[in-house]
Amino acid sequence: MSLLEVSLLDRLDPALASHIRRIEHFKQSLTLLTWDSRTGAPSKGLVQGARVRSTIKHELFLLQRDPEFGRLLHALSEKTSEDPLVSRIAAYHLRSFQLANSIPIKEFQAFANEQSQTSVVLAEAKKTSNFALVKPYLERVFDYHRKFSAYWGYQDHPYDAQIKQFDPDVDTATLDQVFSELKSGLLPLIQRISRASKQPDRSIFAREFPYEQQRELATRLIQVIGYDFDAGKFGETLHPFSSAISPGDARVATIYKRDVRVSALLALHEAGHSIYTQNIHPQLVDTGLGIFTSYGIHESQSIFWEKFIGRHRGFWEQNYGLAQSLFPEAFAGVKLDDFFFALNEVRPSLIRYEADDLTYNLHIIIRYELEKALLEGSISVDELPERWNDKYEEYLGIRPANDREGVLQDGHWISGFGHFATYSLGFIFAGQLHGQLVKDKPDFDRLVAEGRNDVILDWLRSHVHQYGSSKSEYELLRDITGGEIDTRPLLSYLTRKYEDLYELQPSSQPAINGE
Ligand code: ZN
Fold first, then answer.
1. What InterPro entries does this protein map onto (predicted)?
2. Is 270 tagged catalytic?
3. 296 Cα: distance to centroid of ligand 1 (angstroms)
4. What is the pLDDT of residues 170-190, one digit of tens each?
5. Which among 270, 306, 371, 405 is annotated as catalytic?
């Protein structure tokens, strides 16, 4: 599919083009207002801001389900079979049209209200570690998820309807399969590491890292990987996120933690999301296709820069000098090898977004198993905190002392089930992209060590970014790797990297050797 020189909207019926442009501008306004609300909007304006966003959301919903819009889309989709990009625009908006029409307006509004109330109560429950406070709200929100699964429709499992909101090419059977492969690849590796005699010096990152210098480090690092500061903004927030407004405005909001490791990797992660948006072909703007194609692919881009570059030894050959100059006391006398080993320490922990490479997927698997069970009705909201803690004990060998560091830590379940799974999908896809990139550029490690991130970004731009959502997740993967989702490149990469780092005897497990 080639990208065209003229605006794609110009090729549509003017009434349809104008309707699509309105939809896209409403979406972009919402993203912009959400950025503002989360990065320093005045506290006295927050409630009014939420009301404004809710009005825009409602107007957007009405635009998406408009009957005349549906008629024009059907007419277009019937006559444009030889124009793949225009067909894709029609298919993209037809799907939103059908989804928006599958939910009665009243229920959509009631759900939106329930969501905003639940967010407020959850924040309070988290502060006081009081699950009982938010329990009735979660019960109502989860009832909506069950109902919406039925409205959206599914073939095999109600979870299919949920995951397809985030990753339309993926279903429950695929997730069951890939998560079982990740478990059998990762659990034994984590155990071997916990018994290894060589362990990193944990004191390195327990030292003092002043926030002002952390901000400087994060700014320099995201510049190094190619984040364009003229096409975005770099701000701060409580829960890091990226805002995909358009290629000319892709923002990053991060947080600085006590441990500079977490802060640096979070900034690289969110910048990776925004670098994807910045490199989408401008001709796709306002068509609906000018955005990430799926949450899994979006996450693959953040994870690629965070884990495959930001945790690469070569990256720190380039940047450790900078870190040492910013934190001369903390890193005095710390050799690059010791810094690098401590940066990649594997250690089970309770908070998902602070987890290391290997235990990260287990945090996701725990959430996936619980949300699937909630949707099926095989566990109740009442049992949730206990089940959560049991699973942490089973998979990670640690048990949260309270619900704040347990089940109350994330807010994702308010918007829907399936969001967490996209994090592991992204890790798996990033593993596949990395596997292919190393084949295409056998000097990959040298490129990273020489700071040639531009060569790597060019590869990602031409294989992934530019297409926006004009190619689906599996179309991208097929075009790049010749196959679909595959956990082997990731497991093989992680096994090799961590066996080497912890000086373990190489494993002979067949599941993780066949890349
Ligand atoms: Zn992310």
1. Peptidase_M32_Taq
2. yes
3. 9
4. 999 999 999 999 999 999 999
5. 270
